[in-house]
Amino acid sequence: IERERNFTREASHELRSPLTVILMASDNLLVRPLDDAARAMVEKIRGAAQDMVELTEALLLLARDHEGQLATEVVSVNQVLQQELARCRMIYEAKQFDFRFNENAELELDAAPRLLAIVLGNLLRNACAYTDAGQIIIAVDAHRVTIRDSGIGMSKENLGRVFTPYFRVSQARGSGHGIGLTLVKRISDRCGWQVDIASEPERGTVVEVRLPA
Question: b vs e for 47-70, b when ≥16 Cβ sit within 10 Å of the residue's Cβ?
Fold first, then answer.
């Protein structure tokens, strides 16, 4: 177990440099004139690299958590959601969603801020990726965060597999490689947060994250 933790920590740390190079090279290519096919390939490369950055960061944080080195602090869930929502507005600007953020409470908890951001950010980006148009509604209540979309939804069969590694509901653009929800599940279980998902085909998905105040 100790060897596995050391490898996870060291590999996650060492992967940062090559991933940064890939992201910078992708950004440089995207500002140049490219045909549609080339641009789509570069965007796919950049998206995959960004997924890996988040994955390695989460693995590094979880390794530190196991070693008792992960610092926690009182975090404003509202502020984390505002930051992740701003990121989604930028990433999915072309879709012109009707984003609604209902702050029914000011929710704070003792947590590692980056782990919380990874969980909420993944859930928000999933809602955006699997919705072509319509509403994304985020609500903060006393002990929970709810994210509701008007997207393609899921069948009961798919709903039972969403936390399976590499499982993807469809080939939706920007939907990643099927590791996001697995990562959400691992972090949530580790931190004592509960994630529940309800969905119907063509009627959208509702995700509820219950957080201890």
Answer: bebbbbbbbbbbbbbbbbbeeeeb
Contact 153, 136 (CB under 8 A): no
The whole-number average pLDDT for the span 84-107 is 87
CA 196 to chain centre: 15
pLDDT of 2 strictly over 80: no
3-state secondary structure of 99: strand
Q: Which two tokens stand for residue 97?
A: 């969603």
Q: What are phi and psi of 145, to 5 degrees?
A: -120, 135
Tokens of 195: 């994630």
What CA–CA distance (Å, rounded) separates 155 from 159? 6
SS3 at position 100: strand
pLDDT tens, residue by residue, 43-90: 888 877 877 887 787 777 777 666 666 778 899 999 999 989 988 887
With CA atoms as reference, report the closest residue to 160 among 196, 120, 206, 119.
196
Contacts of residue 150, defined as CB under 8 A and 6 or more positions apart, other chains included, come to 131, 133, 134, 135, 136, 203, 204
